[in-house]
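Progress narrative, work stream C.
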Amino acid sequence: MVVTMYRAIRFLVFFVLLVFVACEVKRPENVLSPERMEAFLYDYHLVQSMSGEFSASTNKEKLFYDYVFRKHGITKEQFDTSMVWYNRFPKHIQRIYARLEERLDKEVLSLDNARGTLDEGVSIEVAYLASDTAELWTSSKVRLLSPTPFCNRVMFSFETPDDTTFLPGDSIQFSFHARFISAGADSVGQRLRADVVLDYADGSYAGAGLDVTGNGKYMLSVVRNMASKLKSMSGFVYYADDDSTLASKVVVSGLSLRRFRVNEPGKTLKRD
């Protein structure tokens, strides 16, 4: 009796596994393997994180993207086709980004061990030294955000010094790339909210904000007013969705916070 039951259980387990394997979706030949997608996306997002360093008047950004495609031996059409397929079966792309997140975490940890405490947020000392353009962002430029608490935002906040670091008329620009990873349901609503706020000593403030619902590059720009004393500066990118499974995510890359100096009222110095 026991032996018969044991054999029946073994057969049932074997049958369930067979059905599970049979139901696995076969990846088309023109779709990149998970290993190739992971390797490519790592370099692809690194280029996105570097894009803030490229001048709009040059083609360096295009050259870097072209290099990534050549390095991995794929075309843009192959990549686009693969992304369409992976987004139809989100558990596969979620696994890829989970491994990418682990890889980035390990690299951040290695940097931390190599030079002590890793700088977090921004460094305003750079703005004091730079005459026209200063990159203030010092943290990781690539973040994988999910709707779970403590993993759904990128934030910065700092007190501004009472010196020539931030002058009246200076422009503050906060920019990033967004790439949404859907959970597969068309009804899932995904949204990023980004804001930058300048607080003044007299209680007034100036700010800029936007809602992001599609992939692309976004920028917020705020100009310090000419009259009030600047007290502090803050900003964030916040991710929310209505996916009850908490499976949807968004990659925020190319994070950049820049201060542009003016040499004449109403005229911004040209970038390098």
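Work stream C, second folded protein:
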Amino acid sequence: MNFNLKFGIGTPNVGENFSSVKDLVEIAKMAEDSGWDGLFIWDLIHSRQDPVIPVIDPWIALTAIAGKTEKLRLVTYVTPLARRRPWKIARETVSLDHFSDGRLVLGVGLGYDPKVEFEAFGEETDSHIRAKKLDESLEIIQKLWSGETFSYKGEYYKIKDVCFKPKPLQTPRIPIWVGGSWPNKKPFIRAAKLDGVMPFNSKYMYLELDEIREIKRFISENRKEGMDNFDIVCLGKKATDDMEKRKERIREFAKAGITWWLEDVSPGTREELFATIQAGPPRI
């Protein structure tokens, strides 16, 4: 069986190993040179305060990375739209889409711990309200990407007679992948209307094979367009140095329906991080 499986590196935008844009550019160039297909970067604006951990802006980092790479897919993992203005995101994403020659994927979701990312700044923490803002933002962003004049009146956002140019370089649009915690169904219903899903399990983060099968089945049942152009990202980690065992495990996930294997490089030392990247993706 042939698998068109792609391999990405998942990096935080917080912590010692990821505490500068220059560090992330170096990681991205190393990943591209070593044969990885994508770089997925967290979109946190704030982290814990005891001790204070350095945080960098992922959009500045992605722009710098786009200027120093040629092939890597660039993905936000994930952008909490409830703490952004949808029209600002629309401008930023189209600009980066053009600058990167069509390599951007917009990953979206509710975001990290609301006490850290929202409450500390007087922002809304209620998950239902943030979900409504997310859905309204998604509708607005796609309309702004269309290059056509439109108006919008939602519960949280209002727009009157606006047209944005240029349109995205990618067609029919910049891909939108939704992050969500399985088995909570709402994010996966949202994802089924878009281009991909980046699932995790809120209890133990990494998903099992049966969960991937359930996710694919659920999305296919709620998706009108079929699964041919839909991406399923699986977050994984290097559990063993035995390459054949790693490949066999990844092969089973590919059979279950994933289209991206995302290698989590957040734990470990800088030397371990570089060694994992330079070893290249465990292609099957």
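The chain has one domain: 6-278. No further action is required on this item.
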